[in-house]
Amino acid sequence: MVKDSFKxxxxxxxxxxxxxxxxxxxxxxxxxMRSVPRHLFLETMLDYMAYEDKALPIKCGQTIxxxxxxxxxxxxxxxxxxxxxxxxxxGSGYQTAVLCAMGMKVFTVExxxxxxxxxxxxxxxxxxxxxCFLGDGYAGLPEYAPFDRVIITCGAREIPMDVMSQLKVxxxxxxxxxxxxQEMLRVVKTGEGPEDFLKQTFGDFKFVxxxxxxxxxxxxx
Length: 221
Ligand code: SAH
What we know:
alpha/beta, seven-stranded mixed sheet
């Protein structure tokens, strides 16, 4: 396995400057992203591209979001250390690691078994203590609710109401909603009723779709 090196740290510093240039100014997000070795969440042959502002392929036809998107969603989340955060779409585990590095208690759900297995092991090896679950993010994690924050890292057709019900009143959900491209929403829950939330929009993004049901993949079928 490739390790972290001065070369990678140098690339990471340049990435942080790029994020600042793009308007990211939350120092907690920036220092977390300075500390997490993104290249270790990718296949070795993509090592040299790990700190460019690009979404890159991971297994099962999925992608790791580009650094500016990870930073933007993390900043919109407006979370404090020790908060309980539900992430839907573990993927490579990179966003999970960034939230852990920010001091949050992270519960992350992935529907594809192969990605779940790899991310869980990788996060453990790198000492990011997230709780990883194989499951359908549309159902959330009722047994661990309520959450202070929810971050969805795949494109949802609509706001998943089961997940909304697992958010604390006053809590925030950051979620891309739409079809081929999605609008980034920041949803603040204002009460326990199904209509009790406020939405703000933050421009268009392109995520892989949020799909229903588990996928055990070819490997385990
Ligand atoms: N946060 C990830 C981004 C991965 S891409 C990272 O930093 O790498 C989005 C992921 O969401 C994919 O791995 C996809 O399999 C997963 N996904 C899609 N629909 C889902 C669902 N309903 N529940 C859980 N995960 C889902």
